[in-house]
Amino acid sequence: MLHVTNLQKTYDTGDEALRGVTTSVEGSETVAMIGPSGAGKSTFIRCVNRLTEPSGGEIDLDGTELTALDDDDLRAARRDIGMIFQEYNLIERLTVMENVLSGRLGYVSAWQAFRRSFPPADIERAYGILEQVGLDEMADKRVDELSGGQRQRVGIARAVIQEPKILLVDEPTSSLDPETSDTVMRLLTDIAADRSIPVLINIHEVNLALEHADRIVGLHDGELVFEGTPDDLDEAA
Ligand code: ADP
Ligand code: ADP
């Protein structure tokens, strides 16, 4: 479970990207963070995985206060955070299976997966996850042969094999057509429910959030302006 309290981020440029945001994401639920470009959505995710240093506030992930960690502890904590990126961040010349297995190493050192051998239990687990994302028959294909939707599913599988305590997903559908976007969103909500992993998705397409999320958090100008179910948002609009 992720609890964020009064999160603030002011960049060196003076941009106040987050002005005290408090929210949480709990087991098995999919939360969509919506808001126009510049609202602070990716700053929020970058603060949670500490790619950006927050200016204030607390970030509690299953009892660990992430803002207080030294570098070693931060590296360990990041293994508990599964990241899924807009541009996939896969290793093009490696196969689907190798990319997924690289998740076992933590995303920071993913490139080390090349030529490394993995225990059979990891490979078995990887097949199981590839089956869930519908790519088990493509395990030996290089990712540069895949479509955008297939790549995004490899990215999801790579994050899931980490067995993270949360999945953070930054604009997963912005390079995908509507039908593929739908499939990817459904997959993420299924993973949250089946594996009891809370999922936080930054998404600017409100209709996808309405259709797929359990809960919606709305940001505007670095402030939380809405928090509720898709039905609540429909009524507010
Ligand atoms: P969103 O993801 O909702 O589009 P961002 O978190 O990217 O919003 O941006 C929020 C605000 O912070 C914007 O005003 C943006 O220009 C600013 N911002 C984002 N990243 C940086 C950065 N690295 N340095 C300075 N300002 C930034
Ligand atoms: P997104 O909204 O998808 O996060 P952005 O265009 O806001 O995309 O950001 C792309 C990159 O540019 C990010 O790495 C962000 O940190 C950086 N960035 C965004 N706004 C600013 C800014 N005002 N000054 C410096 N860097 C920025």
What would you say this structure looks like, in words?
The protein is of the alpha/beta class. About 35% of the residues lie in helices and about 25% in strands. The chain has helices at about 40-50, 70-80, 95-100, 120-130, 150-160, 180-195, 205-210, 230-235; strands at about 1-10, 15-25, 30-35, 55-60, 65, 80-85, 165-170, 200, 215-220, 225-230. The strands form two sheets. It has a six-stranded mixed sheet, sandwiched between helices. A four-stranded antiparallel sheet has the order 2-1-4-5. The protein is globular, with a radius of gyration of 17 Å. One adenosine-5'-diphosphate binds near residues 13, 15, 17, 37 and 38.
Q: Tell me the distance between the termini.
A: 29 Å
Mean pLDDT: 91
Order of helices and strands: EEEHEEHEHHHEHEHEEH
The shape, in one word, is globular
Cofactors, ions and other ligands in the entry: adenosine-5'-diphosphate
Looking across the biggest beta sheet, what order are the strands in? 6-7-8-3-9-10
Strand content: 15-25%
Question: What gyration radius follows from the Cα positions, in whole Å?
Answer: 17 Å
| Low-pLDDT runs | none
Instruction: Characterize the biggest β-sheet.
Output: 6 strands, mixed
Number of strands: 10
Q: Output the number of helix runs.
A: 8
Structural class: alpha/beta
State the helicity in percent bands. Answer: 25-40%
InterPro entries: AAA+_ATPase, ABC_transporter-like_ATP-bd, ABC_transporter-like_CS, ABC_transpr_PhnC, MetN_ABC_transporter-like, P-loop_NTPase
Organism: Halonotius pteroides
Keywords: ATP-binding, Cell membrane, Hydrolase, Membrane, Nucleotide-binding, Translocase, Transport
Protein name: Phosphonate ABC transporter ATP-binding protein
